[in-house]
Amino acid sequence: MKDIKTIEFKEDTLYLIDQRKLPATCEYFQCKNYRDVDFAIADMVVRGAPAIGAAAAYGVVLAAKEFLKEDREQFFKKLDEALQVLNESRPTAVNLMWAINRMRKVIDKNKDLPLEAIYEKIKEEADTIYKEDVETNKRIAQYGNELIKDGDRILTHCNTGALATVQYGTALGVIREAHYSGKNIFVYADETRPRLQGAKLTAWELMQEGIPFKLISDSAAATLIRDGKVDLIIVGADRIASNGDTANKIGTFMLSVVAKAYNVPFYIAAPTSTIDYDIKSGEEIVIEERSSEEITHINGIRIAPEGVEVYNPAFDVTPYENITGLITEKGVFPPNKLPLP
Ligand code: MRU
Predict the structure, then answer these.
(1) Is there an atom of ligand 1 within 6 Å of 197 CB?
(2) CB neighbours of 322 closer than 8 A, spacing ≥ 6?
(3) What are the CB-based long-range contacts (under 8 Å, 24+) for 208-211?
(4) Are residues 111 and 148 in the same domain?
(5) Ligand 1 mean position, distance from CA 237 (Å)
(6) Residue 108's domain is classified under what CATH number?
(7) Are 175 and 211 within 8 A, CB to CB?
(8) How far is the CA of 215 from the centre of ligand 1 (A)?
(9) Is the pLDDT of residue 340 over 90?
(10) Among 151, 261, 287, 326, whose Cα sits 20 to 30 Å from the Cα of 319?
(11) Residue range 69-106, pLDDT digits in tens
């Protein structure tokens, strides 16, 4: 397996593969402070729910380091401001708020220690989130692989691979695992308009791994499903409500409707950190709307008329009734019977 280091923290710098530039070049974007991390998340240098969470945790590490020179009162005040900024860098993927919440708890628990010692605890927690993500993804991959048969043709949407996590991936991790366990699988990767995570990122990862696949336009998926060319669909998630309703990349809902119409199993692969136990249903999920340029331009070139009005939601919500199962690090669950927190 290719070792893709999406995120790396060394010598007080957070290195992120600049996913805006893939597949043309594989360059690292350097975050020297938490504002750089805020920018990197908002501008999608780093993207994918688990990767955003891990990057934000290191954003807190950078903030704590920066404010060590302050007195205690200012240290906590400025750190709190940084936590808020990072928490709001993108609204939908709950792994971001989950990671910030974990960092906040560590700060609160250790607030009476010397500032240097608090910094060490913060760094330890970010490293733990980082390591846990790799272990979690491996477990998701193993549980998911049990659902895959030799010869299966799997359709996936967006990028849920090593680039969307610390390593290995969630839905794409399951696909990796099936391939490496010797199953003869074939993948259909949706291009994923408008940001083209499928064309730019998933295709890049699948090619590096030598996993047989074809890239398709999002609108080709329904025909493939109707024609019996897809055995199962596996996608990731950005936020799962308590009732199993799942927010994922725009286009996922449409895919789930077609899958249901043609009895094709539709799985979500995600860590339990993507479950938002505080919300009852998908109606409460905030769906990010991104800039109109993502629709009117491709690689900086205008493709739509000047002045056109645009609606550009980055995610949609798939109702739990359309989901066959949720593959997590704790096992596979029916969407309306999620594991307890
Ligand atoms: O806008 P993005 O690229 O951050 O959206 C990513 C997705 O929707 C992924 O499918 C999801 O985060 C799961 S990643 C393991």
Answers:
(1) yes
(2) 253, 256, 257, 259, 260, 266
(3) 208/2, 208/4, 209/1, 209/2, 209/176, 209/179, 211/175, 211/176, 211/179, 211/185, 211/187
(4) no
(5) 7
(6) 1.20.120.420
(7) yes
(8) 18
(9) no
(10) 151
(11) 999 999 999 999 999 999 999 999 999 999 999 999 99
User: What's the Cα-to-Cα distance from 107 to each of 87, 216, 315, rounded to whole Å?
Assistant: 15, 46, 32
The tens digit of pLDDT for each residue in 304-314 reads 999 999 999 99
One-letter amino acid for residue 93 of the chain:
A
DSSP string, 292-308: THHHHEETTEE-S-TT-
Tell whether ligand 1 has an atom less than 6 A from the beta carbon of residue 160: yes
- Distance of CA 52 from the midpoint of ligand 1 (Å): 9
Place of tokens 């408008």: 194
Q: Which two tokens stand for residue 40?
A: 């990197």
Name the token pair of 89. 């860098």
**Catalytic residue selected from 18, 36, 133, 238:** 238
Domain that holds residue 254: 144-333
Question: Which atom number of ligand 1 is nearest to the Cα of residue 157?
Answer: 10
Q: For 178-229, how does the pLDDT look when each residue is reduced to its tens digit (9 = 90+)?
A: 999 999 999 999 999 999 999 999 999 999 999 999 999 999 999 999 999 9
Q: Is the pTM of this model over 0.90?
A: yes
User: pLDDT > 70: what percent of the chain?
Assistant: 100
To the query of whether residue 133 is one of the catalytic residues in this protein, the response is no
The SS3 call for residue 216 is strand
Strand ranges inside the chain, DSSP E? 7-10, 13-17, 28-31, 153-156, 186-190, 213-216, 232-235, 239-241, 246-249, 266-269, 275-276, 297-298, 301-302, 315-318, 325-328, 331-333
Tokens of 94: 């709950």
| 163 and 285 within one domain | yes
- At which of 123, 138, 153 does a domain end? 138
User: What CATH number is given to the structural domain containing 247?
Assistant: 3.40.50.10470
Query: Given this model, what pLDDT does residue 330 score?
Result: 98
